[in-house]
Amino acid sequence: MRVKRLKIENFRGVTNLDLSFENSQMVVFAGINGAGKTTVLEAMQYLFSWYVARLKSPKGKGLQLDESDITNGQPYCFLKIEVEDCALGADCVVKWSLLKKRSSYRKPVDRQANRTELNDYADSKMELFADNKVHNLPLVDFYSVNRVVDAVPLRVRKKHELGPLDAFDSGLNNSVNFHSFFLWFREREDLENELYREMGKKFLGDDQLEAVRSAIKNLLPGYSRFRVKRDPLSFVVEKKGETFSFSQLSDGEKSYIALVCDIARKMAMTSPQSDSPLDEPAIVMIDEIELHLHPEWQMGVVDHLKKTFPHVQFFLTTHSPHIVTNLKNSGGDTLVALDRGEAVLTTQNQYGQTVDFILNDVFRLKSLRNSVVQKKIDEVWTLLKKGDCTSEKYRKLLGWLRTNIDSADPEFVRIALQEKRIEKGRV
Fold first, then answer.
1. 14 and 107 housed in the same domain
2. CA 223 to chain centre
3. Over the stretch 386-421, which tens digit does the pLDDT of each residue have?
């Protein structure tokens, strides 16, 4: 299952966006705050919530568009998606759309909501899943920026459902605290230990838990053996050979581990008969992938995700140049630079570029310095271009720079060279 095309019209700050994702495995939306990155993911969230709802019930309803979702001054909001699923055979593309029109707008619009193909698709997936024990349900999941590991539940007070449909969030909610993952892991590990006691060495371990453990090793080299310790009761993980309680880890470590484990858990749940659940297709959307991550981890997250989940189509948003500089145009990666709801599909290869290049080219930063220092430097150069390197104003500006920034700053070398050119021209 893969997204082929997404169309957004008049949805919040995005007025007209038509994107093709042919052969794209890793799609990254980059831009400054307010550029429309999260809006694009949330448009997909609305559309896929109907897919999840229809898997659970033929009459299930997903998230409803509201008049507040319509761009100011526009009469309607329209979302459309095209999804490809090769398991369907020759007719492998499914399309569906959502529409919301202002109640005060009386004229007809040349758009309509249509979920007929989606309904048939969801029905066929559930029929295949029920009749064919080796058929899996393609996972779709959304992780908002409101994802935190605020508390780790240790005691299972009631039995939880562990079936494939329980991996789907019925509304693809905007808040994730990962409680369900920890409860699932604890309960699943209790079942695994029970089978160990009954079967001994004949039992090779729980396949779904092994998928989670494998994901941790792939995405976090040096981390392993995530498990529940019984005395004292706690979740623990080995880090470079030393055992740590999960609560002892940094916020970045906890958030990243929980995210990776939750994706692996849900892929294992939706592919119960698969020998390699992490190799199954899925669609995962993550808002601000760099959240809580040190720049060193940001540098590796794209490659680690693709290696660990080779057939997952990821849709990420980011403010981080460290993410962007690891995208390969030739490796199925697509960078979409957004600016006020409009997109520019970059044809230039960003891979391996310096951070300052990415900040300038993708994030449109005019300067890498803080605005006060840059303003002083600009004023100095304005005077130098006029041939002025002796006035009181010039001396005050240069004195301010020498007081406030490092004396080894290369800007002083450039200024000194320009002063010599001016002096030679006066001789």
1. yes
2. 22
3. 999 899 999 999 999 999 998 888 888 989 999 888
